[in-house]
């Protein structure tokens, strides 16, 4: 009997030790396990006072941007940077005569050793300035189109088989993501498309900041020094600086757009830079449109572990204490108000938490109401392929983590209303 009891005790001890050493899961796909959470109120200021007017919101808005800078994305350097714009190529008969294609390089006058941001622009052939979509791409301007006259980028690239070998693009990369950029459709609808490789601003790896803009701006010793997402967002604003000089662009109607990690950057760019007339977030997930306090899909801990260079160092202190974050992502989305905002999800992309993205958009309602606008105007999560909303739009399409023709059709309709 004593041996039996000893054996049982030993088994219990082993099970306990195994459980104690097994890390808690860092993601969840079970809605029943999400649990309860309380979101911070965007309309309660740092002193605990309610925000009731647009003037109150203007002050609260500054507080929220500072809180996101201190705790999530890092401080965007405020110093002005002198830029030089150089047009490197123009094709007046691009897309079989449908468009004007321009290639422009942005140089940093005070930092001549930094690589340029090489911008690819497609302009409709019309007699008026065009509204524009501005978004970064993942694999170089050569991947946006099959046009062989677009030079292959020589910058660092993540290896992707034959398309990128030893971190350099090959001819196999040409047009690799063209389906995500329906250039002809966009131009035929009367819109310009502006894009640049996000690796021009900072290559996407932990040491990518070296030799790029974060190596000369910011303070790497500080826990709120900006991360890669902050740099990509900053780069989008520098491209916007150039577009302010382009007579064929309607500078009052430039939309920030991004997918996945670049969707996070597009949101942060739009929040900080009110020159963006509207913002489109395509499956931006954790650190983007999805609520951080909602334990579903990717989490703060998982994203900080997988991509330690994206956010500021202080963000990692919330890995296991998300409830202590002084802000949540609905407040980032609210910073777009009163401008139009589109948040999109995909039903098979549970990692990005479609419902969490919807809720992020939904909880902007009180802020848009200050401006007499309706945001989503619904609290019901829509069925797939059924867009909802007014000033703020949302859809959850069928399919995986991607950018599809369906997504673009919704964005073009959204843009049509913006330019009316």
From TrEMBL:
Annotated SUPFAM superfamilies: alpha/beta-Hydrolases (SSF53474)
Q: Do you know which InterPro entries this protein is assigned to?
A: AB_hydrolase_fold, GCE-like_dom
Annotated 4-O-methyl-glucuronoyl methylesterase-like domain ranges read: 225-372
Which residues are the signal sequence here?
A: 1-20
- Show the Gene3D superfamilies listed in the entry: alpha/beta hydrolase
GO molecular function term, any single one: carboxylic ester hydrolase activity
What is any Pfam family matched here?
GCE_fung
Q: In which domain of life is the source organism classified?
A: Bacteria
Q: Which keywords does UniProt give here?
A: Hydrolase, Serine esterase, Signal
Name by which UniProt lists this protein: Acetylxylan esterase
């Amino acid at each position: 009997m004593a041996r039996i009891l000893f054996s049982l005790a030993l088994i219990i001890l082993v099970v306990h030790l195994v459980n104690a050493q097994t890390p808690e899961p860092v993601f969840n796909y079970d809605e029943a396990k999400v649990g309860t959470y309380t979101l911070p109120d965007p309309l309660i200021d740092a002193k605990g006072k309610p925000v009731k007017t647009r003037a109150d919101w203007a002050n609260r808005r500054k507080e929220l941007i500072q809180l996101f800078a201190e705790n999530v994305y890092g401080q965007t350097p405020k110093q002005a940077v002198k830029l030089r714009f150089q047009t490197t190529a123009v094709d007046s008969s691009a897309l079989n005569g449908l468009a004007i294609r321009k290639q422009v390089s942005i140089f940093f006058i005070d930092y001549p050793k930094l690589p340029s941001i090489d911008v690819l622009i497609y302009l409709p052939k019309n007699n008026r300035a065009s509204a524009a979509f501005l978004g970064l791409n993942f694999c170089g301007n050569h991947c946006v189109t099959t046009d062989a006259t677009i030079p292959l980028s020589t910058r660092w690239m993540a290896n992707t088989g034959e398309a990128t070998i030893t971190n350099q693009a090959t001819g196999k990369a040409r047009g690799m993501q063209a389906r995500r950029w329906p250039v002809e459709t966009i131009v035929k609808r009367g819109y310009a498309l502006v894009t640049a490789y996000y690796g021009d601003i900072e290559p996407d790896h932990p040491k990518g900041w070296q030799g790029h803009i974060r190596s000369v701006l910011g303070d790497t010793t500080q826990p709120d020094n900006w991360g890669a997402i902050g740099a990509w967002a900053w780069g989008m604003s520098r491209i916007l600086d150039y577009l302010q000089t382009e007579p064929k662009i309607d500078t009052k109607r430039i939309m920030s757009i991004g997918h996945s990690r670049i969707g996070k950057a597009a949101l942060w760019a739009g929040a900080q830079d009110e020159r963006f007339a509207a913002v489109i977030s395509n499956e931006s997930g954790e650190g983007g449109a999805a609520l951080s306090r909602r334990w579903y899909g990717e989490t703060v801990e998982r994203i900080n572990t997988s991509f330690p260079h994206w956010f500021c160092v202080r963000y990692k202190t919330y890995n296991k204490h998300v409830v202590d974050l002084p802000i949540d992502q609905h407040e980032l989305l609210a910073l777009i108000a009163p401008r139009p905002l589109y948040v999109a999800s995909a039903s098979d992309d549970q990692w990005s938490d479609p419902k969490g993205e919807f809720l992020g958009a939904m909880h902007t309602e009180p802020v848009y109401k200050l401006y007499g606008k309706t945001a989503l105007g619904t609290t019901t999560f829509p069925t797939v392929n059924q867009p909802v909303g007014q000033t703020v739009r949302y859809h959850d399409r069928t399919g995986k983590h991607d950018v599809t023709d369906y997504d673009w059709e919704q964005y073009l309709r959204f843009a049509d209303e913006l330019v009316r």
